[in-house]
Design a protein that fits this description.
heterodimer; A: alpha/beta; seven-stranded mixed beta sheet; 40% helix; 14% strand; globular; B: alpha+beta; 44% helix
Chain lengths: 405, 135
């Protein structure tokens, strides 16, 4: 089969819509356009039923009940609602929040906002493997701690945190536990009860659903209270006002249902493709380093540094493959990835990292194409790299006095 | 990020990639930037008896714009006198390659690389003492 270019291998950024999801959504973009809050006619009833069915489907994927699902516009809103909502509601109990340095910006920037409002936030460092240690969480908890927020899996390096162990630590101290589970749910098994989670952020478009719809799991037993951040008609049991995005919600439900049914088959398939990619690259290219734990990692993730080649130059060379880089040059800030820095990856290696995100629709042929392409481009770019030339000549790059610029 | 056609052309078909003999007294070598910043340029030039740059080579660790800036720099300075090469400004590189503001530092680095290579050449010539200084 001919390979269609460019190849999409950036499934941490977003995933393509599964055609089955689109099919389920279409009726709600055409005839069933009702407002789920309209109680007085069949259009509204159909929309409400669709939303409720989807609630059950999403809940089933994480071992929750439908009543615990609050629809949002996406995971960024879910993270904001969880953190700001919990902080505001429980501020009389304490003002301390614990999170980790490698969290998504939706959590980190929300924490920074809360700091401005008087909350104290501890940003836990991570170990070299990129994971948050439960002991580190335990050590950070104080009598003032109201909330702990730790992600299930990291969006850059795919490392999976021991959330069940962290949950046990957090609940032993009676704090609320929020998990940004966006990257992990649908890719690896996750259960809100095993993790003892109180709040869990989810996104549809990371699991082959549509963009613009997410959810926040809010535990009911025992009931977790948060303050709404968007006021209005009192939708979603007062926790999130706004007319429901019914087509998106229907798509999210079906996407979650497919993930739940196919996870046991899809997980190993993703892992096999990822390992084919990793082994192929590492057997053909010298001086590569995988960033983050290989053992505790999303099956589809490979974050790898190709020494002596700057990441953006690599992305340009890989124009037939959609991937991303932790290089400074790909960001507006000109700083290399804060996640890689938190792992202790040296800046010069952070500049050389490439993130491959394998997903449902990638094939072995695509992986083989990518291996061959990357190997050829690495060779070409290294021939152009003064650092590679020095390394070949036995010069230690660290021994040179570089002028920072 | 969208690249200009000229950046893409230099990136896809870089001019003058390679190395000259660092021990040749007529060769000047400039090494600027830092790996931690994500940019390192090595630019070398060989000057003939008339004080004209007869060859230039580069190797660059950096983004596409950095590679293009150094490739363009070598292309331009070939055939220039040392004085002319000394006068090449980063703004000329920015203009030629249509570099966006976030990539201006790549052109600065290329200018620095030229100057650093020429200084190295002059230092070598000065140390030799014999040859007339054209520059």
């Amino acid at each position: 089969m001919a390979i269609k270019l460019p190849i999409y291998m950036d499934n941490h950024a977003t995933t393509p819509l599964d055609p089955r999801v689109l099919d389920a959504m279409l009726p709600y973009l055409r005839d069933n356009f009702g407002n789920a809050a309209s109680r007085s006619h069949a259009f509204g009833w159909a929309a409400e039923k669709a939303s409720e069915d989807a609630r059950e489907q999403v809940a089933a994927l994480i071992g929750a009940s439908g009543k615990e699902i609050v629809w949002t516009s996406g995971a960024t809103e879910s993270d904001n609602l969880a953190l700001k909502g919990a902080a505001e509601f429980h501020k009389d109990k304490g003002n301390h929040i614990v999170t980790a340095q490698t969290e998504h910006k939706a959590v980190l920037d929300t924490c920074k906002r809360l700091e401005k409002e008087g909350f104290q936030v501890t940003y836990l460092p991570v170990a070299e493997d990129g994971r948050v240690r439960p002991e580190a969480v335990a050590a950070a908890l104080t009598d003032k701690t109201i909330l702990v927020s730790v992600m299930l899996a990291n969006n850059e390096i795919g490392t999976v945190n021991p959330v069940n162990e962290i949950g046990a630590v957090v609940k032993a101290r009676g704090c609320l536990f929020h998990i940004d589970a966006v990257q992990g749910v649908g890719k690896i098994p996750f259960d809100v009860n095993a993790a003892r989670a109180d709040l869990v952020s989810l996104s549809a478009h990371k699991m082959y659903g549509p963009k613009g719809v997410g959810a926040l799991y809010v535990r009911r037993k025992p009931r977790v209270r948060i303050s709404a951040q968007i006021d209005g008609g009192g939708h979603e049991r007062g926790m999130r006002s706004g007319t429901l995005n019914v087509p998106g919600i229907v798509g999210f439900g079906v996407a979650a249902e497919i993930c739940r049914r196919e996870l046991s088959v899809e997980g190993p398939r993703m892992l096999a493709l990822r390992e084919r990619l990793r082994q192929g690259l590492q057997s053909q290219i010298s001086d590569t380093f995988v960033n983050g734990s290989m053992e505790h990692r999303l099956p589809g993730n490979l974050n790898i540094s190709f020494a002596f080649i700057e990441g953006e130059a690599m992305l340009m060379a890989l124009k037939d493959v959609a991937v991303s880089s932790g290089s400074a040059c790909t960001s507006a800030s000109l700083e290399p990835s804060y996640v890689l820095r938190a792992l202790g990856v040296e800046e010069e290696m952070a500049h050389t990292s490439i993130r491959f995100g394998i997903g449902r629709f990638n094939t072995e042929e695509e992986v083989d194409f990518v291996i061959d392409l990357v190997a050829r481009k690495v060779k070409k770019l290294r021939e152009m790299s003064p650092l590679y030339e020095m390394a070949q000549a036995g010069i230690d790059i660290k021994s040179i006095q570089w002028a920072a610029h | 990020m969208a690249y200009s056609e000229k950046v893409l052309d230099h990136y896809e078909n870089p001019r003058n990639v390679g190395s000259l003999d660092v021990n040749d007294p007529n060769v000047g070598t400039g090494l600027v930037g830092a790996p931690a910043c994500g940019d390192v340029m090595k630019l070398q030039l060989r000057v003939n008896d008339q004080g004209v740059i007869e060859d230039a080579k580069f190797k660059t660790f950096g983004c596409g714009s950095a590679i293009a800036s150094s490739s363009l720099a070598t292309e331009w300075i070939k055939g220039m006198t040392v004085d002319q090469a000394m006068a090449v400004k980063n703004t000329q590189i920015v203009e030629e390659l249509n570099l966006p503001p976030v990539k201006i530092h790549c052109s600065v680095l290329a200018e620095d690389a030229i100057k650093s290579a020429i200084e190295d050449y002059k230092k070598k010539q000065g140390a030799r003492g014999g040859k007339d200084q054209v520059a």
